[in-house]
Design goal:
This protein has 13 helices and 13 strands. By secondary structure, it is of the alpha/beta class. About 6% of the residues have low confidence. The structure holds flavin mononucleotide. The site of flavin mononucleotide (FMN) has 23 residues, from β6 and α10.
Length: 329
Amino acid sequence: MVDLKTTYLGLELKNPLVASASPLSEKVDTVRQLEEAGVAAVVVHSLFEEQIIQESLELDRFLSRDTNSFAEALTHLPEAGKYSLGPEVYVEHIRRLKAAVNIPVIGSLNGVSSGGWIKYAQKIEAAGADALELNLYYLPTEVDLDGAAVEANYLHIVRDVRAQINIPLAVKLSPFITALPHFARRMADAGANGLVLFNRFYQPDFDLEALEVVPNLKLSTSTELLLPLRWIAILHNQVDVDFALTSGVHTAEDILKAMMAGAKVAMTASALLKNGPAYAARLLDDLVAWMEAHEYGSIRQMQGSLCQQASGNQAAFERANYMKVLGSY
Ligand SMILES: Cc1cc2nc3c(=O)[nH]c(=O)nc-3n(C[C@H](O)[C@H](O)[C@H](O)COP(=O)(O)O)c2cc1C
């Protein structure tokens, strides 16, 4: 019998498969199905800074009756109703999920600035969340804004959120950071207990007939695994945080690779959205079958076994590999 247990952010998990933040967490029943199919924990879809600000603007308008400035401010925010839950409803949803399932429930806050909205970290904790994932999804497009300022802002937010809560904190990061190892260490110093690599950026497309820029959401495939796989392999044992791999986890082999790179958990959203919550059971069955066939006794035993330091081929992760790959064509 193989031992699938792992730990993540101090939580004891029965296996390394975690449902990543997605609409699957919007319904209590679906989260129950995920639990029945065997996922070890669920990250709830995010509560966005914009949602919280929007609600406080509405309150402001109610108090000041200044309808003009309110209308102006709202044009910069997403349309009301585009997101499924308002902030208080979100917090209540966490409470309901905690009452409905036994697996850990990880709340998710998504924002890019420090401010009053961060107090929702406390509310999510008070609702019973086992941990908080902070998603820093920001695209710097201003020429005056340099990388150091963007990173300082991220660190500032992490410190602010950390100061609000006692539960573990994971930060979901973009891959577009110049010196990721150094930044990852600063994240740990700022109070992050885990790093979730990586945020998947949705690139808008052009509609050539309508001459419009259109949103474009395509689910991932396993090919996207390689970017977080490489970086977790590089960072494992260098930075004192737990790593969660997200992007491209579709098969048991993808989970195994994530573990060997050094991740504590493999998170999946697209595969579950595409195949339904019950697909988690298939992933776990395949995981066990592979481990038995290859005589692995436990997940812990394989975690980090192919990280950069342990792989016996450090150069494979670095520039040297670049020439080799080009030459191999
Ligand atoms: C429809 C959809 C909604 C998502 N919503 C969120 C969200 O609310 N918060 C978040 O941090 N990530 C969100 N994600 C990103 C996923 O959690 C995940 O990181 C990303 O899809 C990459 O993993 P995958 O390859 O398994 O899909 C969403 C993804 C999809 C496809």
